[in-house]
Design brief:
28% of the residues lie in helices and 26% in strands. The chain is an alpha+beta fold and 254 residues long. A hairpin with a 2-residue loop joins strand 4 and strand 5. The structure holds 2-amino-4-trifluoromethylsulfanyl-butyric acid and cobalt (II) ion.
């Protein structure tokens, strides 16, 4: 069942999203060579809790951490751990914030220290793919329009679009209907309505879209060992167009 959110609910979700966005803005300064992804976990959890919110991933379907910290060929659901980050690591930090019962969800990618041309291009294409998807999140469009915009652009750039993990509805719970794939056929699928709140969160790989699972039951890796990148926003669909709930302002956009 898809729940439509009222203006009031969307405002509360935007407050949750603004807090989440401020965590990512802080992470831009925090992430540097020599720290570990466990340092990121502690920083994020303290920041969220000291601002009166709940780190909503903790305890979600048995997940133990405030963040997913997925490094290089890890696609998603990497566990934060005491591994030292070094120049040229690509880390995706994903989190959910619950503020006053409203949940927001946003993943952002960071390069540690000195980047490479390969990483710069993958990050730029992944971010642009996200915003091309968001442009399609309009009343009257269909779910397939979002996936098609992302897939056609990313594949034209020579990259693979992950199939196994998709965007989703969000509200008082992290994962709600509808499913929002990052691949698809324009004009197909559910019609988007005012009041739907969804995430768009493309995972884009330098090589194949195929993945393998870690025995830990959570972490997925690219099958070919290539790099994977991800950006995610929570978005409300309104008659005035897509409303970014987790926007980081000018600097965060493409
Ligand atoms: N933030 C993730 C998403 O984008 C949720 C991961 S599930 C968790 O959907 F258990 F790891 F939290
Ligand atoms: Co999500």
């Amino acid at each position: 069942m898809i729940t439509l959110k009222s203006k009031r609910e969307i405002e509360t979700m935007a407050e949750s999203g603004a807090l989440l966005a401020s965590v990512h803005k802080e992470l831009r300064k925090f992430i540097k060579p020599g720290i570990t992804s466990w340092d990121i976990e502690v920083f994020v959890r303290d920041y969220i809790e000291s601002h009166g919110a709940i780190a909503a991933q903790i305890g979600y379907e048995g997940y133990k951490y405030a963040t997913c910290c997925s490094i290089n060929d890890e696609i998603c659901h990497g566990f934060p751990r005491k591994k030292v980050l070094k120049d040229g690591d690509l880390i995706k930090v994903d989190m959910c914030v619950n503020l006053n019962g409203a949940i927001s969800d946003s993943c952002w990618a960071y390069v540690v220290g000195k980047s490479t041309d390969e990483i710069d291009r993958l990050m730029a294409v992944t971010k642009k793919a996200l915003y091309l998807g968001i442009e399609q999140a309009q009343v009257g469009n269909r779910i397939g329009d979002i996936g098609h915009a992302i897939q056609s652009y990313a594949e034209q750039e020579g990259y693979g679009v992950v199939r196994d993990f998709i965007g989703h509805g969000i509200g008082p719970t992290i994962h709600e209907s509808p499913a929002v794939p990052h691949y698809g056929v324009a004009g197909k699928g559910l019609r988007l309505k005012e009041g739907m709140v969804i995430t768009i969160e493309p995972m884009i790989n330098t090589g194949t879209w195929k993945m393998k699972m870690d025995p830990n039951g959570w972490t997925s890796y690219t099958l070919d060992g290539g790099l994977s990148c991800q950006y995610e926003h929570s978005i409300a669909i309104t008659n005035e167009g897509p409303l970014l709930l987790t926007s980081q302002g000018e600097e965060g956009t493409y």
